């Protein structure tokens, strides 16, 4: 960190069509108080010019190892950084970084950096799925770098598939969490697959109505973002959310409790951790009306009969998909929070239960949360009111301790 107190970030930009999106990431970094130095490759300058990077960052742009050579930029830039993020990271950049090549300023910077490094890949699906790229990504992750999974969507031309650069706002969130953890904090979920459910299920009454709840999915998404920042491979099962996909997470969208159950159980087959943060409906209508239920003058509506939905958390806890799998549940309570939470923890059989008090103006839809993390070992970890990412990190801290006992 420099004398001004601003975290120093190096934004590496490699030569892909998504280079223009890095301008938005740069804006978010500078406007949030980071001192950003942009290091574009020669190819990147074919997409966005040097003047743009300099104007947006407020810093001179070095493009080669021979620029301002008296300052030894190929060594100094990496040495002074608190974070290096490469967005977009092409297949070529990933390969050169994995093999320790140093044929331009960006790869020299990556070799000299002793701070956290984040790669946000962007390329065609075939390039991302090629065995060479897969091995390079595995190498970088093994060395401690955070390599964000690319998004699925429209690529260049008419192609669609996995390989799209994640939303710059979500890449920024990953960078912010990585910086918050600091260089001394290892990526303690590296090599782990975590499955997280988020949002609220909806049980249809008729073609236009449903039984639902107030869950926004923000806590589940915070768990996904923080897990990515800690190096995990993340599958997010999202029920009826309106939030942008967290960078680096594979998102599976569902609607009902039955769909969520199927998606979570399928993803959990090879998962190290399953976190049930979604608000799953306990009941569903016994009968679905094929047409809209009509209002009839002078007549009260027919009572709606309900039947129970499967208890997904209890199922996951009782039949673990693999030895040592950690299962975490969430419990939203309105009264006797700890007592009800302890009873639910024993009933569900999970390893951890995050218990919070909810209400119309509390927790649901809020950017903040307050909870107690209860452990099957009798432990209690209170988390004071604060950003949902703070609660998420506390949950992962507890999970890592359980995993380390394997």
Automatic annotation (TrEMBL):
<keyword id="KW-0210">Decarboxylase</keyword>
<keyword id="KW-0479">Metal-binding</keyword>
<keyword id="KW-0460">Magnesium</keyword>
<comment type="function">
    <text>Catalyzes two steps in the biosynthesis of coenzyme A. In the first step cysteine is conjugated to 4'-phosphopantothenate to form 4-phosphopantothenoylcysteine, in the latter compound is decarboxylated to form 4'-phosphopantotheine.</text>
</comment>
<dbReference type="InterPro" id="IPR036551">
    <property type="entry name" value="Flavin_trans-like"/>
</dbReference>
<comment type="pathway">
    <text>Cofactor biosynthesis; coenzyme A biosynthesis; CoA from (R)-pantothenate: step 2/5.</text>
</comment>
<comment type="pathway">
    <text>Cofactor biosynthesis; coenzyme A biosynthesis; CoA from (R)-pantothenate: step 3/5.</text>
</comment>
<protein>
    <recommendedName>
        <fullName>Coenzyme A biosynthesis bifunctional protein CoaBC</fullName>
        <ecNumber>4.1.1.36</ecNumber>
        <ecNumber>6.3.2.5</ecNumber>
    </recommendedName>
</protein>
<feature type="binding site">
    <location>
        <position position="344"/>
    </location>
    <ligand>
        <name>CTP</name>
    </ligand>
</feature>
<comment type="function">
    <text>Catalyzes two sequential steps in the biosynthesis of coenzyme A. In the first step cysteine is conjugated to 4'-phosphopantothenate to form 4-phosphopantothenoylcysteine. In the second step the latter compound is decarboxylated to form 4'-phosphopantotheine.</text>
</comment>
<keyword id="KW-0456">Lyase</keyword>
<feature type="region of interest" description="Phosphopantothenate--cysteine ligase">
    <location>
        <begin position="194"/>
        <end position="406"/>
    </location>
</feature>
<keyword id="KW-0285">Flavoprotein</keyword>
<feature type="domain" description="DNA/pantothenate metabolism flavoprotein C-terminal">
    <location>
        <begin position="189"/>
        <end position="401"/>
    </location>
</feature>
<feature type="binding site">
    <location>
        <position position="330"/>
    </location>
    <ligand>
        <name>CTP</name>
    </ligand>
</feature>
<keyword id="KW-0288">FMN</keyword>
<comment type="similarity">
    <text>In the N-terminal section; belongs to the HFCD (homo-oligomeric flavin containing Cys decarboxylase) superfamily.</text>
</comment>
<feature type="binding site">
    <location>
        <begin position="310"/>
        <end position="313"/>
    </location>
    <ligand>
        <name>CTP</name>
    </ligand>
</feature>
<feature type="binding site">
    <location>
        <position position="282"/>
    </location>
    <ligand>
        <name>CTP</name>
    </ligand>
</feature>
<keyword id="KW-0436">Ligase</keyword>
<comment type="similarity">
    <text>In the C-terminal section; belongs to the PPC synthetase family.</text>
</comment>
<dbReference type="Pfam" id="PF04127">
    <property type="entry name" value="DFP"/>
</dbReference>
<dbReference type="InterPro" id="IPR003382">
    <property type="entry name" value="Flavoprotein"/>
</dbReference>
<dbReference type="GO" id="GO:0016874">
    <property type="term" value="F:ligase activity"/>
</dbReference>
<dbReference type="Pfam" id="PF02441">
    <property type="entry name" value="Flavoprotein"/>
</dbReference>
<feature type="binding site">
    <location>
        <position position="348"/>
    </location>
    <ligand>
        <name>CTP</name>
    </ligand>
</feature>
<keyword id="KW-0511">Multifunctional enzyme</keyword>
<dbReference type="InterPro" id="IPR035929">
    <property type="entry name" value="CoaB-like_sf"/>
</dbReference>
<feature type="region of interest" description="Phosphopantothenoylcysteine decarboxylase">
    <location>
        <begin position="1"/>
        <end position="193"/>
    </location>
</feature>
<feature type="domain" description="Flavoprotein">
    <location>
        <begin position="8"/>
        <end position="176"/>
    </location>
</feature>
<dbReference type="InterPro" id="IPR007085">
    <property type="entry name" value="DNA/pantothenate-metab_flavo_C"/>
</dbReference>
<dbReference type="InterPro" id="IPR005252">
    <property type="entry name" value="CoaBC"/>
</dbReference>
<feature type="binding site">
    <location>
        <position position="292"/>
    </location>
    <ligand>
        <name>CTP</name>
    </ligand>
</feature>
